[in-house]
């Protein structure tokens, strides 16, 4: 009598496919360099804003340029937040679509964990912030500030402390941050649009449709697409919707796979990956660092000013959301997903690894600063900047301690992964069952 073979349990944080691992590694290298530039820009801004020449920094930040008739007479800080960050969100849109159309996240089982973790990392920090700031007039509009993860900042920290961090953990962090970006985009569009001008919005949608038709026909001429994309951005900005949303919509419009006439998916990377390679260095190396330079420069006012800032419930709420809310939400969501899907943690990893990664996700710099300015205005967000900087730095330090304790284990896993890659150049990362389906 034969007994039925029990179904094989799925693996949580197992290594992904070789092609995806190679693509993720390329992204991580670029984002790590961008993170170093981001940190340098933020430190430079803090030093300048607290130096005897702070007035020059404020003058530069508030310098207004651009045509008033087109609603584009913006300060340099405004151009950085509304304009340059649109490039960042365009790349995020490309990455999101790439992950769900052709990446490992097209597998529902593999996508469930980072999506659930990202949602948990949004809901719990927001609730914790609202709990701490309850009863404080006007504070509630900042609920979304501690919900974001800054992947460039986090990867810059990893470059210093986690050189041997397993590929699965790095990929999980990147994927979580990508989904986190999508949630942040939705939050910005739904909750931080004060007024809506329907005519510019309708015109933006028409031009977006034209852009979509062109890229779906695999047109890649910069002289045609760039002016069209700029027009879409300007019209979205004039409509009252935050202009960074235009970047995401433009990214979503770009096809991921090659057309049938061009050989199909097997013939090589599609237009989305082509654009991503072209614009990711601009995003990571220019857009995000410049935004950080104009947003991180907050005058602390010495020890008294810093002490006064921490008497503000908004500051306490943001710090608590980033340092405690993020890891609690991510850990809880991941554990629940694993329990209900009967998934086992990869045998080389432990839950303490997930804890360190969850704390690292509390680094919420770029998007947190952006939402802080949208919630309280540029002038009213000074305490928010202190909170975001403090929370992000604290999360980085705690994550450093946790992940460094596991460095010996990570080095051993790194040696195994390197050996896999050296074996005929192809990593042995999938086991297959009798039906030939990958056990990820």
UniProtKB/TrEMBL annotation:
Keywords: Antiport, Cell membrane, Ion transport, Membrane, Sodium, Sodium transport, Transmembrane, Transmembrane helix, Transport. Its main location: membrane. GO terms for cellular component: plasma membrane. It catalyses: Na(+)(in) + 2 H(+)(out) = Na(+)(out) + 2 H(+)(in). InterPro entries: Na/H_antiporter_dom_sf, NhaA. It comes from the Bacteria. It is found in: Cell inner membrane; Cell membrane. It holds the Pfam family Na_H_antiport_1. GO terms for molecular function: sodium:proton antiporter activity. It is a multi-pass membrane protein. The chain crosses the membrane at residues 32-49, 69-91, 111-132, 144-165, 172-192, 198-215, 282-303, 315-338, 350-371, 383-403. GO terms for biological process: regulation of pH. Na(+)/H(+) antiporter that extrudes sodium in exchange for external protons. Belongs to the NhaA Na(+)/H(+) (TC 2.A.33) antiporter family. This is Na(+)/H(+) antiporter NhaA. The gene is nhaA.
